[in-house]
Structure to design on (209 residues):
């Protein structure tokens, strides 16, 4: 991503937010897969003696110009639908930050630990493999039946259940879009239906490197 773009974001970022050059190492601005937004590491301004400057991910949206708002690492991973770069940039900040100094990286450390220990995983790997199986001729209903998710007296496969878990349609009508997440136990069930080990569709959720 160009330096000019970084400068433009910095100029239009409200409330004293600014970009972190450390957070841009190697990756620049991360983009969402299915939304009109992007993510970049920034620094939140000091609010009080108990809320000093701190590193934070920022969500950048184009509505009416560029606008940036604080966002958690989990939300960045959910929008980007990948673990690698959000984790790598976050870890870069943590590797260079000195405990007790400003900007603070404490919140990032907590967020990264939470993501690494979470049983809620990205569903993109399962969705992409399921879509491949559909192209091979297997129906969504058949996949749902194999997962023991049926509905009605005839016991047909509950396609709606599977589409929601795979992030194809929203889980609720009130939600703006499909969820990028699923519980690891559901992912394991769907992996078995798709004929692969869960790790093959976890997208590196538990990778240590």
């Amino acid at each position: 991503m160009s330096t000019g773009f970084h400068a433009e974001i910095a100029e239009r970022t409200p409330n004293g937010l600014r970009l972190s050059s450390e957070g841009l190492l190697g990756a620049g601005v991360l983009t969402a897969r299915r939304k009109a937004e992007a993510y970049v590491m920034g620094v939140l301004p000091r609010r009080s003696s108990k809320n000093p400057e701190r590193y934070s991910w920022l969500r950048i949206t184009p509505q009416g110009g560029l606008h940036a708002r604080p966002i958690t690492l989990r939300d960045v991973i959910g929008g980007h639908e990948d673990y690698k770069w959000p984790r790598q940039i976050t870890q870069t900040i943590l590797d260079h930050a000195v405990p007790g100094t400003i900007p603070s990286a404490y919140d990032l450390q907590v967020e990264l630990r939470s993501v690494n220990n979470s049983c809620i995983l990205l569903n993109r790997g399962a969705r992409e493999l399921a879509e491949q199986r559909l192209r091979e001729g297997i129906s969504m209903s058949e996949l749902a039946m194999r997962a023991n998710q049926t509905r009605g007296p005839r016991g047909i496969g509950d396609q709606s259940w599977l589409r929601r878990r795979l992030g194809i349609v929203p889980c609720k009508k009130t939600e703006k879009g499909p969820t990028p997440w699923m519980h690891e136990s559901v992912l394991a069930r769907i992996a078995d239906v798709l004929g692969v080990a869960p790790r093959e569709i976890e997208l590196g959720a538990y990778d240590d490197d």
Summary: The chain has two domains: 3-117, 121-201. The first strand starts at residue 18 and ends at 19.
